[in-house]
Design goal:
This protein has a single domain, classed as Nucleic acid-binding proteins (OB fold (Dihydrolipoamide Acetyltransferase, E2P), Beta Barrel), CATH 2.40.50. It is built from one helix and six strands. It has a five-stranded mixed β-barrel with strand order 1-3-4-6-5.
Length: 110
C-alpha cells in the first residue's frame, strides 16, 4: 500500500507551452499547466463540462523530454506526487501553491 501514498495520475491537455529553466548545475526544470475535463449532466439534463487546471513541474530527463516534444494543446498522461510550497510576496503576504511533481510522462494523441 505504500506505493499508493501521494500518487497522482492525470490525462489532459497542456494549456500553454512549457517554461524551461536550465540551471548552472546542469539540471533542467519544466513548468506547465494541464487541463482535465469532467463531463456530467446537471439536474435539468444539460451536459456540463467542468475543467480543472493543474500546475505540473518536471525535472531532469523528464523535463528534457517535455522541452523537446511537448507544446500547448498536446494531450499527455502524467504520473507524479502532490507538493505544496509557500513563499512571501512583495507585500509580505504568505502565498501557497500546490503542484504535481511529474515522475512519468506519456505523450498521447497524434
Amino acid at each position: 500500500m505504500n506505493t499508493l501514498r501521494n500518487k497522482v495520475q492525470l490525462i489532459g491537455n497542456l494549456g500553454n507551452d512549457p517554461e524551461i529553466t536550465n540551471f548552472e548545475s546542469g539540471k533542467t526544470l519544466a513548468k506547465f499547466s494541464v487541463a482535465t475535463n469532467e463531463t456530467y449532466k446537471n439536474p435539468k439534463g444539460e451536459k456540463v463540462t467542468d475543467t480543472q487546471w493543474h500546475n505540473v513541474v518536471a525535472w531532469g530527463k523528464t523535463a528534457q523530454v517535455v522541452e523537446k516534444f511537448i507544446t500547448k494543446g498536446k494531450e499527455v498522461a502524467i504520473e507524479g506526487r502532490l507538493t505544496t510550497r509557500s513563499w512571501e510576496d512583495k507585500d509580505g503576504v504568505k502565498r501557497y501553491t500546490t503542484e504535481v511533481v511529474c515522475s512519468e510522462l506519456l505523450m498521447l494523441g497524434k
